Amino acid sequence: MSENRPLGVTILAILMAIGGILGIIGAIQILTNPWIRIAAALRAVNIGLIYFSLLLSIVALPIAYGFWTGLTWSWYAGLAVSGLSAITNLLQLPGGILGLIIDAVVIYYLLQPNVKEWFKVMGGPTLPEISLQAKPSTSEPSSTPPPGMKFCVTCRRAIPSSNVYCPYCGAKQP
Ligand SMILES: [Zn+2]
């Protein structure tokens, strides 16, 4: 079953599964506590934040499964969640420094070639495609002008045959 899954991916999948389950249990315990309504009314507790952490814990379970089985979408989901977490930690910086370091390590790790291979993520940036697109668009002057056109004697751009002067460089045509 574990056909060369990178060790870090295995560890992350297990941590996410455990964290997700503990997070769900913890959030439900808080939300079903009879004192929570009073605490929320007194603004001693931010109920929205608890629901948000419950949501993150639920989302962590399918991502953990995706990491375990090498599903491509879970790689993107893992990157997105780590990115969001990094932003959140950045906003509460003195306290969030440890979380920020962990997020950075996870993001760096997910970008490693052998990890991307496990998730069947296609190669790096699309630089080759860009250079391929740029090649034909560079209008190199061809040997024969289009019908009804001629090449300027000075700048070699295609201009109407009837033009005496080049509209681009102003050179007089023979
Ligand atoms: Zn010209």
What's the layout of helices and strands?
Layout: H1 7-31, H2 36-41, H3 47-69, H4 72-91, H5 93-110, H6 113-118, H7 127-137, E1 149-151, E2 158-160
Antiparallel strand pairs: 1-2
The protein binds zinc ion.
What does this structure look like?
With 174 residues, the chain is mainly alpha-helical. The chain has 2 domains: 7-118, no CATH class; 141-174, no CATH class. Helix content is 63%, strand content 3%. The chain has 7 helices and 2 strands; from the N terminus they run H-H-H-H-H-H-H-E-E. The chain has helices spanning 7-31, 36-41, 47-69, 72-91, 93-110, 113-118, 127-137; strands at 149-151, 158-160. It has a two-stranded antiparallel sheet with strand order 1-2. Strand 1 (149-151) and strand 2 form a beta hairpin. The protein starts with 6 loop residues before the first helix and ends in a 14-residue tail after the last strand. The model is unreliable at 125-138 (pLDDT under 50). It binds zinc ion.
Report the average pLDDT across residues. Answer: 83
Strand content: under 5%
Strand order of the largest sheet: 1-2
Terminal Cα span = 77 Å
Number of domains: 2
Radius of gyration from the alpha-carbon trace, in angstroms? 30 Å
Number of helices: 7
Can you give the helix content as a percent range?
55-70%
The coarse overall form would be elongated
- Sequence of secondary-structure elements: HHHHHHHEE
Largest sheet: 2 strands, antiparallel
Return residue spans where pLDDT drops below 50 for at least 5 consecutive residues: 125-138
Bound molecules: zinc ion
- Structural category is mainly alpha
The total of beta strands comes to: 2
